[in-house]
Amino acid sequence: MNKKYVILLTSTMLLVSACGANDTDVNGTGADKTQDVAVVEQNAEKSTEKSSPNGAENSQNSTENNIENNIENSQETSTENATKNTQENTGEQACLSSISYSNLVDDAFKVEVKESMLASGLEEKNIEMFLKAVSYYNTAVGDAGLVKEGFKTSENLQPTYDIEKIIENWDTANSSFEKITGNRNNCRMTTFLLGNNLINIDGEYVNDNKMLFMDNDTIQYSENAFFTEENIAKFNTFYGDVSTDLVKDIDVHLSKIKAYWNEKKVSFADSKASIITVWIHSDLDNNLFVGHTGILFPSNKEDKFLFVEKISFEEPYQVLKFNNRVELNDYLMGKYDNAYGQPTASPLILENDELLKGYRENPNKQ
User: In sequence order, what are the residues at sequence separation of 6 or more whose Cβ sits closer than 8 angstroms to the Cβ of residue 3?
Assistant: First the structure.
């Protein structure tokens, strides 16, 4: 078969499987209930044919009991398979097709988000520090494609911004190299600043982390008093890279991450807010590192989740609204799970120290 058609067929099968397009097999059992019943009846008839001719009535009762028992067993097996193969109905839930996002520009929306953060267990001093950084950034970059008020709904799952204009405006607003560098934040710095009260580390700190050289260069010039020597060491430890094997099995990589955090005695506060980390598998050094991170917490206004992130050093702060964790998964995997034919595993998404409920590979990968 032509290789091009093999790739196309494989991608289509993965997409159908992930998004639950087959209405007759939403539980992933490979057959619908009508087929199950037909097989049960055939087996029951064979059992009847082998019965004694003098026990017709008993044979009929036995047949009915066999059908009932086998249907019940079939349904139990189907339920068990559904439990094993789906988390938060990942197989049944449609692929994420749009997002609602904000850049925290207007004051009214900042107040709304702050209230949700406080109710979720984030500390007020950290929230104020976060909002101060957001306001500084938004003022500096100006009108570069930011959402000016509340939420915006977009079918583009990865909003585009005028990066060239953002960089130009940022450099103009900051008069020196030290300020240009020291006033900026990325995803890891933002999550650590906002959610550091959610993270406990009782083990030995890592004082140097080669994977975080850009983060540490920025922290070196930062005027934020939060970055004490101890907090910098805690930062480098929490986001430490982890040695792993060159395999695609995510269970192997998950166990490596947990082993590292256990060694460092990393734990997470019992809170409504949680730390989301996207772990990337690199075959250059055969390691795992946190390529992206943010904070997830429930909205105080409606039955939704809010996810806060700083996309990158240059790109804006975002607050996104999701109905459930599967939508969050699809948003993040849509951005980071795009490699083909690689010997490495797909990215892993962790909520605190567990695999995200609703985790699945990028259902929109084509």
Answer: none
Tell me the C-alpha to C-alpha distance, in Å, between residue 239 and each of 144, 233, 253, 316: 31, 10, 15, 21
Are 102 and 159 spatial neighbours (Cβ–Cβ below 8 Å)? Answer: no
Q: CA–CA distance from 305 to each of 5, 56, 300, 336 (Å)?
A: 40, 61, 9, 21
**Left, alpha or beta for 153 (phi > 0: left; psi -120 to 50: alpha)?**
beta
Domain regions of the chain by residue span: 3-85, 99-355
Q: Which residues pair with 159 in a beta bridge?
A: none
Residue 64 and residue 87 in contact, taking contact as beta carbons nearer than 8 Å? no
Q: Please state the length of the chain.
A: 366
Q: What is the DSSP string of 6-25?
A: HHHHHHHHHHHHHHT--GGG
Cβ neighbourhood burial of 38 (10 Å; 0-12, 13-18, 19+):
exposed
Per-residue three-class SS string for 289-327? EEEEEEEEEECCCCCCEEEEEECCCCCCEEEEEECCHHH
List the alpha helices (DSSP H) in 153-276.
163-173, 177-182, 187-195, 213-221, 229-238, 250-263
What single-letter amino acid sits at 132?
Answer: K
pLDDT score of 81: 38
Residue with tokens 């991608």: 11
Q: Hey, which residues does 46 pair with through a beta bridge?
A: none
Residues paired with residue 320 on neighbouring β-strands, in sequence order: 101, 307
**Confidence label for 113 from pLDDT (cuts 50, 70 and 90):** very high
**Identity of the amino acid at 366:** Q
Query: Where does residue 222 fall: left (phi above 0), alpha (psi -120 to 50 degrees), or beta otherwise?
Result: beta
pLDDT at 97: 93
Sequence-distant (6+) residues with CB within 8 A of 256 are 242, 243, 244, 245, 288
Q: Tokens 């998964």 label which residue?
A: 329
Whole-structure pTM value = 0.76
Residue 90 pLDDT class (50, 70, 90 cuts): low
